[in-house]
Amino acid sequence: MKKILLIGSANMDLSMNMLRVPEPGETLIDDGGIAYTPGGKGANSAVAFAKLGADCVFCTKLGKDAHGQKLFNYYKECGINTSHIKVDAEAPTGLALVMKEADGSNRIVVYPGANTTLSNENIIEAFACNPDAVYLGFEIPFATAVAAAKIASAKNIPIFIDAAPASKEYPLESLPYLEVFSPNETETFEYTGIMPRGTESCLKAAHSLFTRLKAKYIVIKLGSRGAFVYDGKHYDLVAAYKPDAVVDTTAAGDTFTAGMTLEYLRSGNIKSAMRYGAAAAAIAVSRKGAGASVPTEAEVFDFIKRKGN
Ligand code: ATP
Ligand code: RIB
């Protein structure tokens, strides 16, 4: 079983369903429903790794509050290794306001809370688990993510980055050699100024990223259009699966990148790994919630059998 050290964020999501988001200055009343559900880009990927059959050691920071306690219990139920989850005495657990419109799309604002207190000391301790791979996201301080990447690099541990959320201010140059760097469309635009629409713009954006960071593969997630992969010489577009329904796209990207990473570690083949991630994500978009929408390994297997490779 592959052991993955995931260093990333944990949030409680407050999801609100609405026909549409309000215009500036407008108040809307919409009884579409609300729910508090486990979220956070790091945590959603940790849940995905555990459900898809990895030994996932999750290094994160929660607040000393009811949300933190609920999330901790949930991670245990999901089979995540919680021995490197820390609790901050002062900052509250991260909270994300997820505004979900009728077509299943979402807009998210994150109050990072305890995620901002994840320290270098916390991550150094976590490396004691001797992982096969390290998986990082940017909902924690960027400097902490860079420190984690540098420790992994010194130990020859492959590094996978789900490059969300993005900021053009991030010094991507300071990252060591990565196995995979994976932003979505809007993150790619933020990093490069190029919106990846067709093959040509995807290639331009990937080229631009290669001028700023060293990686074996850049994988650009393109929603229902699939994902684009570039290794500096060759590129390909790997199609998405047609989901049974589009109910809630929250955590599609987190599920895709985790599924792709795990399958890549198993097979060494990036394209089949992306297709596996796409199958896991297509199931996730057909269900409500973030972490709760992630499928198990058996569900992905059945889905691929039903829909074909
Ligand atoms: P999110 O922020 O919602 O978690 P993201 O923007 O990071 O997601 P996307 O590019 O939307 O990531 O999606 C990642 C992958 O999930 C896609 O490459 C695709 O395989 C799958 N996916 C997302 N949305 C759909 C959809 N509507 N239909 C089929 N597959 C989808
Ligand atoms: O990618 C989806 C996640 O982004 C949500 O669960 C929310 O917590 C934000 O971090």
Strand order, sheet with most strands: 5-4-1-8-9-10-11-12-13
Task: Specify the overall morphology.
Answer: globular
Unreliable spans are none
Derived structural class: alpha/beta
End-to-end C-alpha gap: 23 Å
CATH architecture: 3-Layer(aba) Sandwich
CATH class equals Alpha Beta
Gyration radius, rounded: 18 Å
- Quaternary state of this entry equals single chain
Bound molecules: adenosine-5'-triphosphate, alpha-D-ribofuranose
Helix content: 25-40%
Largest sheet: 9 strands, mixed
Helix/strand order, N-terminal first:
EEEHEHEEEHEHEEHHEEEHHH
Number of helices: 9
Please report the total strand number as a whole number: 13
Output mean pLDDT: 95
Q: What is the name of the CATH superfamily?
A: Ribokinase
Strand content: 15-25%
Number of domains: 1
Question: Care to describe what's here?
Answer:
By secondary structure, the chain is α/β, with parallel strands linked by helices. It has a single domain, classed as Ribokinase (UDP-N-acetylmuramoyl-L-alanine:D-glutamate ligase, 3-Layer(aba) Sandwich). The strands form two sheets. It has a nine-stranded mixed sheet with strand order 5-4-1-8-9-10-11-12-13, with helices on both faces. A four-stranded mixed sheet has the order 3-2-6-7. Strand 11 and strand 12 form a beta hairpin. Helix 7 runs antiparallel to helix 8. The longest helix is centred in the C-terminal third of the chain and has 16 residues. The model has no long low-confidence stretch (mean pLDDT 95). The protein binds adenosine-5'-triphosphate and alpha-D-ribofuranose. The site of adenosine-5'-triphosphate has 23 residues, from helix 7 and helix 8. Adenosine-5'-triphosphate binds next to helix 7 and helix 8.
